[in-house]
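Take a look at the protein record below with the fold in mind.
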Amino acid sequence: MYHSLDVCIEEKITYGKGKPPRDPAKRKIGSIKYLLKGTVNENTEKVEQTREESGCFVLPTNTPVTGAMSHSPAEVLAAYKEQHGIEQYFSFIKNPTIMNSVFLKNPERIEVLCFIMLITLLVWNLMQHVMRRNIKESGSVVEGLAGRKTTIPTHMQ
């Protein structure tokens, strides 16, 4: 998708030992080797398009743009990168198959999408909490990944 390959085959003949005969047609061939020579060509349009799509992401925040509590985008990003729990739960946002296909021009629509994702995360966490509580109260064991028995099926590792 991003590169193409141009390949040509070259024949390399190795002749037998000894003095070559006067008639080149009677020369004995010792071995023939085939060499692949190729060049990789970059599809610059596709590469540039993909770089542009993956070079930016939306970071929702309720930090004001101006005023005493305002922060620069770099400060917000630095604080975000320190929150490892957020990374675990919002890992699907960074999945290029999901988010690179979403394109919203209107800032209000971006806010609505972020709000929907936050509500979804809250519901997901509530479901995990209820599941863990019920397993703890009942003392039961459930089947987790790869068929292993566990008492903490929603624990992220």
In short: The beta strands are 3-15, 29-42, 142-143, 149-150. The chain has a mean pLDDT of 81. The first helix runs from residue 44 to 54. The CA atoms of residues 93 and 99 lie 6 Å apart.
